[in-house]
Design goal:
Elements (H helix, E strand, L loop, with lengths): L2 H4 L8 H12 L2 E3 L11 E3 L1 H20 L4 E2 L5 E3 H7 L1 H4 L1 E6 L6 E3 H8 L10 H10 L16 E5 L2 E5 L5 E5 L4 H5 L2 H7 L6 E10 L14 E11 L15 E5 L1 H5 L6 E4 H6 L6 H17 L6 E5 L11 E9 L2 E12 L1 H9 L6 E15 L4 H8 L3 H14 L8 E6 L2 E6 L6 E12 L2 E8 H12 E6 L2 E6 L10 E5 L4 H16 L4 E3 L5 H11 L3 E5 L1 H5 L4 E6 L5 E5 L3 H10 L10 E3 L1
Parallel strand pairs: 3-10, 12-14, 24-25, 24-26
Antiparallel strand pairs: 1-2, 4-9, 5-6, 5-7, 8-9, 10-11, 11-21, 12-13, 14-15, 15-16, 16-21, 17-20, 18-19, 22-23, 26-27, 27-28, 28-29
Helix pairs in contact: 3-16, 4-13, 6-7
Length: 598
C-alpha cells in the first residue's frame, strides 16, 4: 500500500472542513430543519451516518454490555423535577456565559478564553479568574468583534424544561445524561441482579443540553446520543480482574503532568500505571484498558488518542477521580468519553430524596454480635406534643441514636426539626443499647461510570478515516473505515447496462443481504466513477459482474478492495461467506485465494 493511501490528508484546508462538506454530500450528517433556515445544535444523520452510528452503537453494546455480562435498559428521556433536584442538576449543571454588549450574542466564556489564549482548560477556572483573563487579553466577541472586557460572566443552566400533562402539570426536564434513568431505578434493577454485587447496567440513548454556543458540527450539539455504563460495586470487597488488560499500552496525561511546567504525557501499560499509582482506581483502570482496545477496533487512530485526567477544578464534585478519552482532530483534543469513580453520591442522593431503599445487603462470612442503639418513643407523649410532626421527631431520634449515643445520657434530649431545636425528656424516647446478632449489613454501592459520546465518536472515526491519494492519474478521496462499522460493506455493479448482467448482479445482492451484509447496487455511470462514489462513503469492497462472469463455468466476479484498490477474481458461490469473514476481521483481503487482476 502506498504512503499516500495510509496517511491522513494534510492540506491547507482542514480535514474537518472537508469532512463536513463530504458528510452533507454523501448523507452522513447535516444541520436539521434546513428548509426553515436550520437551528443551531441539532443535526440529522443521513442514510450513511445513521448506519455508521448504529454500527458503532452495536459494537459498544457487544463489548460493554454483552461481553461484560451487564444489563441494558431504555429509560424515558423526560423525567420529573424531583429526580434532578436530588441529582443536583437543577443547582449545579451550568456553563459560563458572557454576552456581547454590542450584538447581544451569548458565548461560552471558557471557549472564548481557550480559543484566544494559551489556557487549555478554562472550564476549570473560577468565574472571577475568567473575567480577569478576558480583560487582560482584551478578548472580543467572536461574532462582531466588540470588546468583552468588563462584561459579567454568569452561570447558565443547561437543562431543557417542559411540563408533564395538561393544566396544573408536573414540571419535568429532558435528561442531560442517561445515567439518572439508571440510578432512579436501582431499587428494582438490583432485584434483577439478585442483589449480588458487582453488576452493571448500560443504556444507549438521547440526552439534551441547551448549549450556549454549539459548534464544530456534531462535536458539540444540543441533542446527542450517549452510551453509558453504571457499574455498581462494593468498595471494600470487589476488585476487577486486571490481568485481562494489564498489558494494554496507554498514553496517559495525569493531572500532575498537566500542572508541571515541563509536564508531558506518559506512555505505559495499564498494569504498570496501577502499580505506580498513576491510576488510583483499579476499576477505572480496567475500563480504560477495555476502552483502549475497543476504540482501536472501531477505527480511532491510536497515534491521535490518549487518556487525560481531570484537573481538580474541572472534576465533578461527586467524582473522586475522572479520566477522559480524547481524540485529536485538526490539532485539537476533544473529549470522547469520561471514566469516573462516582462513589456513592448518586444512590445516596436519591435515597435521601425518595422513599425507596438504594442499598444492597452485604452478607458477613460469619454472624456478628454488635451493640445497637435503639429508640422506642412514647407516642402518647409525642402525639399531643408535636402533632403532625411526631413521626419526623421519631426519625430524628433514630438518626441521633445511631450517630451520638451520648446525647441520651442526660435527663433531656435536643433534636433539630426544620431548623428549630426541640427538647424532650430522655425517658420518653425509649432509648436503649442492645446486643444484636446480625448476618450482614445494608450498604450503598459505589458507582464506576464509563460514559461515551456516540456522535463525537462517529465524527472522530470519520475524521481519522479521511484519506486523499491518486489512482490512475486521478485524485481520490476515500474513508478508510473498518468493515465492522462501515455503513455499507459491499457495492455490487453490473459492468454495463445489460439485462443478463443486471439480473446476475441483483442475485448476488440478494445472496449477500441474506447473509446479513449491508449492500448497495449501482449501475449508474462508468465503473471508475462508481468505484469513486463507494470509496468516498467508505465501502470496503466492490463486486463487479462482467461478461466473463456469464461465460466462466465457475462463475467468478471481480472483487476490489477500497484501500489498496487491489482486485481479485473470486467465485460467486463463495462471496457471502468470504464477505462475512472480511467484515468480521477473520480474513484479510490479501489472503483471499483468488486470481489477482491488474
Amino acid at each position: 500500500m502506498s504512503e499516500q493511501q495510509t496517511e491522513p490528508a494534510e492540506t491547507d484546508v482542514s480535514i474537518g472542513e472537508k469532512l463536513v462538506e463530504l458528510a452533507k454530500r454523501r448523507g452522513y450528517f447535516f444541520q436539521s430543519s434546513g428548509a426553515y433556515g436550520g437551528v443551531g445544535g441539532f443535526y440529522t444523520f443521513g442514510p450513511q451516518g445513521a448506519a455508521l452510528k448504529g454500527n458503532v452503537e452495536d459494537a459498544w453494546r457487544d463489548r460493554f454490555a454483552v461481553a461484560e455480562g451487564n444489563m441494558e435498559i431504555d429509560a424515558p428521556t423526560i423525567m420529573p423535577e424531583p429526580v434532578f433536584e436530588a441529582s443536583g442538576h437543577l443547582d449545579g449543571f451550568d456553563d459560563m456565559l458572557v454576552e456581547c454588549p454590542d450584538c447581544g450574542e451569548s458565548h461560552r466564556a471558557d471557549h472564548v478564553v481557550e480559543d484566544n489564549t494559551e489556557y487549555e482548560d478554562a472550564e476549570s477556572l473560577p468565574i472571577p479568574e475568567v473575567e480577569e483573563v478576558i480583560a487582560e487579553y482584551e478578548l472580543v466577541c467572536p461574532n462582531c468583534g466588540a470588546g468583552l472586557a468588563g462584561q459579567a460572566v454568569e452561570t447558565f443552566n443547561l437543562m431543557f424544561g417542559t411540563n408533564i400533562g395538561p393544566g396544573d402539570s408536573q414540571p419535568g426536564y429532558l435528561r442531560p445524561e442517561t445515567a439518572q434513568g439508571i440510578f432512579v431505578e436501582f431499587p428494582r434493577l438490583k432485584e434483577y441482579a439478585r442483589n449480588q454485587l458487582p453488576f452493571g447496567v448500560s443504556q444507549i440513548g438521547r440526552a439534551y443540553r441547551n448549549e450556549i454556543s454549539p459548534r464544530r458540527s456534531i462535536i458539540r450539539t444540543r441533542e446527542f446520543t450517549q452510551a453509558e455504563l453504571e457499574f455498581f460495586i462494593d468498595p471494600e470487597t470487589d476488585e476487577p480482574d486486571l490481568s485481562a488488560v494489564a498489558d494494554v499500552e496507554v498514553r496517559l496525561y495525569p493531572a500532575s503532568e498537566q500542572n508541571a511546567e515541563d509536564g508531558e504525557e506518559i506512555r505505559t501499560t495499564i498494569g504498570d500505571a496501577v502499580a505506580e499509582g498513576i491510576l488510583a482506581s483499579p476499576w477505572v483502570a480496567y475500563f480504560l484498558g477495555v476502552a483502549k482496545r475497543w476504540y482501536d477496533a472501531v477505527g480511532v487512530d491510536m497515534d491521535r488518542f490518549r487518556f487525560r485526567q481531570h484537573l481538580s477544578g474541572e472534576r465533578a464534585h461527586y467524582a473522586s477521580d475522572c479520566w477522559d478519552a480524547e481524540g485529536e482532530l485538526d490539532g485539537n483534543w476533544i473529549e470522547l468519553a469520561g471514566f469516573s469513580d462516582r462513589g456513592d453520591y448518586d444512590l445516596s442522593k436519591h435515597a435521601a430524596h425518595s422513599e425507596d431503599r438504594f442499598t444492597v445487603f452485604r452478607q458477613y462470612d460469619e454472624p456478628k454480635t454488635v451493640e445497637r442503639a435503639t429508640v422506642d418513643p412514647d407516642m402518647s407523649y409525642l402525639g399531643p406534643e408535636f402533632g403532625g410532626d411526631a413521626q419526623a421527631v421519631v426519625s430524628e431520634l433514630e438518626t441521633l441514636a445511631g450517630r451520638d449515643r451520648s446525647a441520651f445520657e442526660g435527663d433531656s434530649v435536643t433534636i433539630d426539626l426544620d431548623g428549630e431545636s426541640h427538647e424532650l425528656p430522655t425517658e420518653k424516647t425509649g432509648f436503649a443499647v442492645e446486643e444484636q446478632t446480625e448476618a450482614g449489613e445494608h450498604i450503598i454501592p459505589h458507582v464506576i461510570e464509563p460514559s461515551f459520546g456516540v456522535d463525537r465518536l462517529v465524527y472522530t472515526v470519520l475524521h481519522h478515516a479521511y484519506r486523499e491519494d491518486e489512482v490512475d492519474g486521478e485524485d481520490r478521496t476515500y474513508l478508510e473505515l473498518d468493515p465492522e462499522v462501515a455503513p455499507t460493506v459491499v457495492g455490487v455493479f453490473p459492468l454495463q447496462n445489460d439485462d443478463e448482467l443486471e439480473a446476475t448482479a441483483n442475485d448476488i445482492v440478494a445472496d449477500l443481504r441474506d447473509a446479513g451484509l449491508s449492500v448497495t447496487y449501482d449501475d449508474s455511470g462508468n465503473i471508475g466513477r462508481r468505484y469513486r462514489r463507494q470509496d468516498e462513503v467508505g465501502t470496503p469492497f466492490c463486486v463487479t459482474v462482467d461478461y466473463e462472469t456469464l461465460e466462466n463455468e465457475a462463475t467468478t466476479v471481480t472483487v476490489r478492495e477500497r484501500d489498496t484498490t487491489a482486485q481479485k477474481r473470486l467465485p460467486v458461490s463463495d462471496l457471502p461467506e468470504l464477505m462475512a469473514d472480511l467484515r468480521a476481521g477473520e480474513l484479510a483481503f490479501a489472503d483471499l485465494d483468488g486470481e489477482n487482476e491488474s
